[in-house]
Structures are given as C-alpha cells and as structure tokens.
Write a structure and sequence with these properties.
38% of the residues lie in helices and 20% in strands. The protein is built from 16 helices and 23 strands. It has an 8-stranded parallel β-barrel, surrounded by 8 helices. A 5-stranded parallel β-sheet has the order 14-13-15-16-17. The protein has a 4-stranded antiparallel β-sheet with strand order 12-19-20-23, with no helix packed on it. Strand 2 and strand 3 form a beta hairpin. Helix 6 (137-151) packs parallel to helix 8. The longest helix is centred in the middle third of the chain and has 24 residues, at 195-218. The N and C termini lie far apart (49 Å). Bound molecules: zinc ion.
Length: 530
C-alpha cells in the first residue's frame, strides 16, 4: 500500500525527471519565467490569451492581491494578452476596468475589451434566460449604449458568441412576414420570409447601425471582433451571416471548443470539428481571422489539449483560453497544468504550420448552407484520417473533393460537380447528396464513391479500418500519399510533404504512411516537417 510519504517521493522523482528532461530548472518560479519568456518571444507566431468576464472584473480583480494573482497565473500559462470584459448582462464599473487595464499594461500584456450580449433587453422567446429580441427598438438602444461604453475604454473589442437571436415573438414574426428589418429609424428589405432571411438581415444591420458605427464614432481607432460560435451548421438560422458580417467587422474569431465527445452535457462533437471550422472560417476571413477560442467545460485534460492542438494545426494565430475564472475551478486547474506542459511544442508546431500551405481533399461547405440530415458531417469525415481542405467556394482546382448535401446551396452545383467528376478527380459524395443530384450529375464513373452516411454522420466513427483505408487510398491517390491507419485519426498534409497525424483513440495506433510504419501514442500526435 502506498503511504502519503511514498506518493510524495514518487511524485518528486517524476517531477525531477520531467524537469531534467525538459532542461528546465526545478523551481516553479523560474519554470514560470521561462514559459513567459518563451511566450513573449513567440507572440508573432502564436499567442495565448485569456478573458476576464465583467463579473470576474468585479469579483477577482477588485483588490491589488486579486490583480497580482491574475497576472501571475497568466505569466505561468504563457498568456500575453487579456480581454477585459465590460458587459455580460452586468456592466463592470469604469474605475475597476481602468485599474485592471492599467495593471496588465504595466506588466507588458496586450489588453483588449470584450462584450457578451446576454440579457441586453427584451428576452427572446427562444433562449429566454440569455438571448434578446433585437427587433425591439429599446433593446437596440440599450445594445448601442453597451458598445459605446466599451469603445470609450478599449481600442479592440471582442464580441463573445451570443451575438445572435432566436426570438419568434409577435413583433419578430410580423417583421419576418413583412420581409423588413427595422433598425432605429431605418428599414432594410429581407430577401425572403423565412426566419433565416429575417434574422440574418436583422443581425447584419443591427451590427452595422447599432454596434460598429456607434463604437467607431466614440473611438475612431476601435477594432471590433466578431467571434463565431462552434455550431457552424446553424449560424444562418440564428442570424450569424459569415460573409457580410466578416466583411463588416475588423476581425473574426472562431469557437474551437469541441469538449469531450462522450460528455453527457456538452458532448457529441468530435475533436476534428475545431480544425474544420477554424480552417473554413479562415478561408472566409483571410487575414481578418485572428484566432481560436476554447474552454474547459465538459473536458478532460486530454480533450483540452486536443482542442489546443486542433486550433494550432488549423493555423490560428492566437488561442484564447476562456476564461480566467472558469480555469481556476472544476476541470480548469488540471487542464491548465496539462496545457502548460504542451505549450513549447504547441508554439513550435504553430511556427511550422504558419510557414506552410495545407493540401488534401477539398471539403465544400457554402456559406449559409443547410445541413439537412448531414449535420456537421465534415467533422466525422475528417475523423476518418482524410486531410480535408475546408472551403466555401466550389473547389474547381482541388485534386480531390468531398461533397455533402450542404453543396446544394450552390446554384451551379450540377454543372460544377459534373465538370469535377469528368476531370477524373477522386470524388467522395454522401448518399444524401447522391440521391438529390441523381439524373443531373453522372455518378457512375470510376472516380466517384458514395459514402453511406444514412442521415447519421456519427455512424462514420464506426467504420472499420479496411473501409477507411480503401477510401483514403482512392482519395489520396492524386496527392501521391498513402495512409493506412484505424478510424478516429486526424491527418494534416502540407504542400511540401510535411504531415501531422493525431490519434484520437484511447489506444496506441499502428500507422503506415507512404509505406513506413510508426506507432502514434493513444490520444497523441506525431509531426514530420520537411
Ligand atoms: Zn422578438
């Protein structure tokens, strides 16, 4: 039986070995110092940031000791930028915000603001507890005041991903039927009478007239960041319109909080989703795409670190760790401890990824496209070890392509897809899309394979290795790469032949790449840079 003493001795020995292995000093202070120095010198490649909510500004940053403690935590976690939030239902006190901002600036941090649009005004008929009805003019007035206040304090403001509406009150319903969004004194025609038409028109114009313009009037230097949530297949239903909003805002941010697939409350999203959404929005946003954002809810240390890896592999220039207060409790401290140990490797990988262009199988999701019964199918196809290149425009020049019912949003799909297939390119098409394009697109060519999703994308996780090996062999042929591996692997391929393989299985995986065999540890990754 282990006594507490032997546990301490064993732990001490492990810690000593880890420190020796990493060539670091044994003292915690200098270890924190080295991570902070590394973070500062790596900021141009990749930066870690955190967010302090308005309530945390009040509860955790109101004393000198609280501020010192937050600064110390950030330095030990390689965090060099903080978002200090002015509003989250509750509006933080100006003096408290200024004091916290000054303290972080004095210690060499970058400091920006944040607004979370919960409980702004008239409650939505949908998610009543948090979301508002933005058809309501007094709610628009309140919203504008919230952003004017924030712009008076900060030159950059993140908007957390509650910037949507699901309200269907009589006022919203009348406006939807009238196909007219009213914002302040102005009216804007919606293209149709669906909820999606109305909410997108409303949120685009409320953003322009009640957020961006008033904030810029108060502070001409201000940059506003729209942070898109992780649920990409429903954006349009709630008024997130990724083309116009990305064009209007100064920067965009991406939710990469996949959490634990098996978690009862938060689960159901596989790890690869973070990569898919970050690359897809990165393609839409280009240089405006600032970073990813993940949290500790419903995670284990392994999934938390996987969120970090997917965010970095997807080319994010910043990882926002939401949020300081949550990372101090529940699963937070263990997650942070695991992350800190990985940060040097994450920064190194971020540097390699940033120098290279990804190649692989185009994965086509047009903006505002409807998932029907294939919700988030891309995430599960990515889990099969296919190196996807997410895109929002038809991938005419891609060497190989994956197509799902989402592609039906493209008015020229039949012609585009027919030409793609006629060019002899490997084409993987879902059974759902095949059903809807039959008669319009010739699918009986040798380079076309139908993927049986059966309206249940998660069923793809159960495909045996023989099936996924066969699909990879066909799809990777023009890339002159081969991968034999179990299902539930991430495969990331770069133009110069560099690659990363990540194993999402709980067991080590035997992997054969271009004929050479290696073992990837359980929930681990390997990378090969040329
Ligand atoms: Zn309403």
């Amino acid at each position: 039986m282990r006594t507490p003493e032997t546990v301490i001795v064993v732990l001490g020995a492990i810690l000593l070995l880890q420190c020796v292995a990493r060539g670091q000093s044994q003292t915690r202070t200098s270890n924190a110092g080295s991570l902070w120095d590394l973070a500062r010198s790596s900021q141009k490649v990749h930066r870690f940031s955190t967010l302090l909510t308005a309530q945390q500004v009040r509860d955790l940053l109101s004393s000198e000791e609280g501020i010192r403690s937050a600064i110390d935590w950030c330095k030990k976690t390689a965090v060099t930028k903080v978002y200090i939030e002015t509003f989250r239902g509750y509006q933080a006190d100006r003096a408290a915000l200024q004091k916290a901002k000054g303290a972080f600036l004095a210690e060499g941090f970058e400091v920006s603001g944040c607004v979370t649009t919960v409980n702004v005004g008239k409650p939505s008929t949908g998610w009543k507890a948090l979301i508002s009805c933005y058809t309501d003019l007094p709610t628009q007035d309140k919203l504008q005041a919230v952003f004017e206040y924030a712009a008076g304090l900060f030159d950059e403001i993140m908007i957390d991903d509650f910037w949507f509406t699901d309200c269907a009150c009589p006022q919203c319903d009348a406006a939807r039927k009238a196909k007219t969004a009213t914002v302040g004194q102005k009216t804007y025609p919606a293209p149709g009478d669906t909820w999606e038409d109305y909410r997108c028109e409303l949120m685009v114009n409320v953003s322009r007239d009640r957020v961006l313009a008033p904030a810029r009037k108060v502070n001409p230097k201000v940059r506003l960041i729209i942070k898109y949530p992780q649920w990409y297949d429903q954006f349009h239903e709630r008024g997130y319109e990724v083309i116009r909003e990305t064009a209007d805002f100064d920067r965009i941010w991406v939710g990469t909080e996949t959490r634990d697939y098996a978690d009862k409350r938060w689960g159901g999203t596989p790890q690869y989703e973070a990569y898919f959404i970050m690359r897809w929005l990165g393609g839409i946003g280009g240089d405006k795409c600032g970073g990813g954002w993940y949290d500790p809810y419903g995670t284990t240390e392994r999934t938390y670190v996987e969120q970090a890896r997917q965010t970095v592999l997807a080319g994010a220039r910043e990882s926002t760790l939401f949020c300081y207060g949550s990372l101090l409790k529940d699963t937070g401290p263990k997650n942070v401890e695991a992350l800190r140990a990985e940060i040097p490797e994450l920064l190194s990988v971020a540097g390699e990824v940033g120098k290279r262009q990804i190649v692989g199988v185009a994965a086509y999701k047009p903006a505002n496209s409807h998932p029907e019964k294939e919700r988030r199918v891309f995430d599960f196809v990515g889990m099969m070890g296919l190196p996807l290149v997410p895109c929002h425009q038809f991938p005419t020049d891609a060497p190989a392509g994956f197509f799902s019912v989402h592609a039906l949003k493209d008015a020229n799909l039949a012609a585009n897809l027919s030409a793609f297939i006629a060019a002899g390119k490997p084409t993987l098409i879902t059974d759902g899309l095949a059903e809807q394009v039959k008669g319009k697109v010739k699918l009986d060519a040798a380079n076309v394979r139908v993927l049986n999703v059966k309206g249940d994308p998660k069923s793809l996780l159960a495909l045996p290795q023989a099936d996924v090996d066969a699909i990879r062999a066909m799809m990777l042929q023009p890339l002159k790469v081969s991968l034999k591996a179990p299902n539930k692997m991430g495969f990331y391929l770069f133009r110069d032949g560099s690659y990363v393989v990540e194993n999402f299985n709980d067991e080590a995986a035997k992997v054969e790449i271009n004929g050479a065999t290696q073992t990837v540890p359980a929930r681990g990754w390997t990378h090969q840079w040329k």
